[in-house]
Amino acid sequence: MFIVRLALALAFALPALSTVRAGDVAELEILGFSADGKIFAFEEYGVQDGSGFPYANRYYIDTETDKFLPGTPIRARIDNENATVADARGQVKSNAQSVISDEVLAAHRGHTAGFSPVTELSGDPFRMTVNPRPVFPPIDTPLEFRLEEQLIDAPDSCELFGARIGFRLFRVTVEDGARTQLIHEDRTIPSSRGCPLGYRIAAVETFYPKDRSPVFAVLIAMRTGGFEGPDYRYLAVTGRF
Predict the structure, then answer these.
(1) 3-state class of 198 per DSSP?
(2) Backbone angles phi, psi at 106, to 5 degrees
């Protein structure tokens, strides 16, 4: 009787399991900063949902202007299911060394002052407050960032997923009275983002270059419409403090 019940349970469970869908969440690696803090770089990589093709993207940001360096981002997707993520990562690494070498970036890695992966359920996805460097007792003013989502008209190609979402990012300073500074606001959404459905603060990176003001990079996890489910990719907002 037990065997019969087990067989029936499996018969009902297997069809349900076969309909499970999952998008892909890119892995995030902080590459580092230039010695003067004027460049911040990170990489995202993984296997594309639906196609199964490996990909890797490298982003190099001018922290003075919060814009990509010329000739970047550097992207690779290998349209071959037998290729590996390591192959894609090796390709973008090779192509990126003329921008700034990995050795320079690694020598100025900075600090991961705060980190909240997309699997984190207990934290606040729209707010992060950090001690900007691992000095205890703290000698620095805390850094606080807050994110707000906003609706932006979606093109026809995004109608399947719903309204496209942009965001605002604020820096909050609690010193001599609270002060809120808008450091990023989407007016439109770049086509490179695809169909963004939402955002969350993923990490705060800091770097203290010699004889210059320290630099921050706020990593934003972006949820987008994917082939088998929502995908997650990353972008960054940078500046000095």
Answers:
(1) strand
(2) -65, -30
Query: Range of 95's domain?
Result: 25-240
- Is residue 13 domain-resident? no
pTM: 0.88
What does the pLDDT profile of the chain (241 residues) look like in tens digits?
434 343 434 333 434 433 445 679 999 999 999 999 999 999 999 999 888 999 999 999 999 999 999 999 999 999 998 999 999 999 999 999 999 999 999 999 999 999 999 999 999 999 999 999 999 999 999 999 999 999 987 666 677 777 789 999 999 987 766 789 999 999 998 888 888 999 999 999 999 999 999 999 999 999 998 777 789 999 999 999 9
Can you give the C-alpha Rg of the chain in angstroms?
Answer: 21
102: helix, coil or strand?
helix
Q: Contact, 31 vs 112, CB < 8 A?
A: no
The answer as to whether 9 is a domain residue is no
Give the residues across from 237 on adjacent strands.
218
d(CA 188, CA 25): 24
Query: For the chain, what is the domain count?
Result: 1
Domain presence at residue 11: no
Residue 3 lies in a domain: no
**How many CB atoms sit inside 10 A of residue 184's CB?**
20
Report which residue type is found at 187.
R
